[in-house]
């Protein structure tokens, strides 16, 4: 006799979710395709812009950015060397594709995450309602929300952007909310007493004081976006993850290791520069 869970108590909401996705496709398919086309134009345009920059000039720009952030010549040389290492592996074009995907995804994270963090910091009800949603976004397996994203946007770069956005957004929202919540209330009260409006208190006091925490959240979002590049390659987005996936499919260990090291090198460059700007903000 089976000791399984009783069938009479089992429930399933899979059909309801499928009907919801079908309804979205039927009623909002045109709007979704319009959004998809605009994001694709933005991403492809950024890729083409990066390709127009000579490789040596891009290395110089990264070196200058690293020096401006850290004021360390050695660190700047190391950052330039890591990017040059990716080019020496013959992965320069795929590096630019991955970099464009990460920049667009991170930009969307900032546009959505910082306002959400402000909302959570100033509205207790919104915090109680949205915190469980952020928990689900961080713990839900990636392939679960890839299914509806693929149905709504199809294969390609755009679903990769949305999948990366879902995965990388929560840290920025949480750390923005944390940074704003840790501000001394007496500072805001003093500004209010001097006649500052709510927008002035937010822009001139709260956000500058919370900037280190926001930068830490941005750093975490970028790292999580980079960790999605292999998954993104599985749904049609090209880049460094494409070579990792090809190495898995063909059992080409060398190809997979090279692409993996290139992803690590890019992650180190972005992480060190963003961390240095975060310390500078502090």
UniProtKB/TrEMBL annotation:
UniProt cross-references to InterPro entries, sorted A to Z: MetI-like, MetI-like_sf
Which positions, given as ranges, span the membrane? 49-67, 73-92, 99-122, 142-169, 205-235, 255-273
Q: Provide the topology term for how it sits in the membrane.
A: Multi-pass membrane protein
Q: Which organism is it from?
A: Pseudomonas promysalinigenes
Q: Where in the cell is it found?
A: Cell membrane
Keywords per UniProt = Cell membrane, Membrane, Transmembrane, Transmembrane helix, Transport
The entry's protein name is: Proline/glycine betaine ABC transporter permease
> Coiled coil located at which positions?
none
Residue intervals of the ABC transmembrane type-1 domain = 95-274
Q: Name one Pfam family in it.
A: BPD_transp_1
